[in-house]
Amino acid sequence: YSLERLNNIGVQNSLDDFGTGYSSLSYLKRYPIHHLKIDKSFVQDVNTHEYASSIVTAIIAMAKGMRMGVTAEGVETSAQKEYLDKLGCTEQQGFYYSRPMGYEKLVMQMSDRHVADLVCVDR
User: Fold this and answer.
1) What is the rounded CA–CA span in Å between residue 47 and residue 80?
2) pTM, whole model, 2 decimals?
3) Torsion (CA) 109, 70, 55, 119 in degrees, nearest 10
4) How far is CA 24 from the centre of its chain?
């Protein structure tokens, strides 16, 4: 299946690790992309490196302007979370929220608290 065909049947496409490797701005124009996931290498330096914070700010603004969802990967500290919150990045994932867990542990956690309180969902 091509991304266009998947899009036509209702599948939404995410571009993972955006800003690194082979991800390119031209992909956003050429393909039906609905969601960007900001690579953790930018998120980890967001409070300590001016260029990283500028890149994260630009990616979030661009995604919002293009009506795309955006997820920050690799959130590990409250300072990173607060910075991303200020930018309006409401989807975040990383060790700050939870270490990876198996299905059984996830089900147990969900039964122990209200489902709305579970914030460690990976897309």
Assistant:
1) 7
2) 0.78
3) -10
4) 16
